[in-house]
What we know:
By secondary structure, the protein is of the alpha/beta class. It contains eight helices and seven strands. It has helices at residues 13-24, 37-47, 66-71, 97-125, 136-140, 146-166, 191-200, 209-220, and strands at 3-7, 27-33, 54-58, 79-82, 128-133, 171-178, 231-234.
Amino acid sequence: MSKFALITGASGGIGQAISLKLAEEGYSLYLHYNKNQQAVNLLLDRLQPYGGEYMPIQADLSTKAGYKKVVQNIFSIDAIVHNSGSAQYGLLTELTEAETDKLMNLHVTSPLLLTKELLPKLLAKNSGNIVVVSSIWGQTGAACEVAYSTAKGAQIAFVKALSKEVALNGVRVNAVAPGAVQTAMLNDFNEEELEAVKSEIPMGRLALPEDVANSISFLLTEKASYITGQVLAVNGGWYT
């Protein structure tokens, strides 16, 4: 019987890597995206050889009601991967209320309420997994990314709390916290700035989206059956 996973932010670099990895492992997928329909269409083409069911769902999770559009398109579910996100650079004194609302809706409120609505489906099966893609900045914080760090730290608190609430129901809840990942999120950095970042990372390179996807894949398997409430740092030793 096919297993179904929801991946939010499936059109991004990390989301595509997660989708391909889980499809390879036999999952059928709900592929959430917001604006990048072209990327999702190309992803669907790449997924076809794996033979599962792959269903795109468009919704803006930075709005208060966006999560409801996702929920109404979900039927059977075995895993939820909260991957949607966007960076927010700048001094805290320059942050607007509108930017704050969008950031918190996308990273905190929507994942919280989406999980609330879908959790009964996992509890009914007495099994399932939830993985949140947080960030190194949720663990240690970053200047000029105060709001983003706050949101990512909230995701980690969510994982630690919910994991205790549902552990006896057979549902595991974990997070991965990537460092600098080679995706479009780093497009605003020039080559010199990227080299400076690499020089701070003990392994001397940026993460690939596949590095993050592989860590999520592990957390979803029976090999991680006794792991819940944890944050797996995927950062090349940058923060330990």
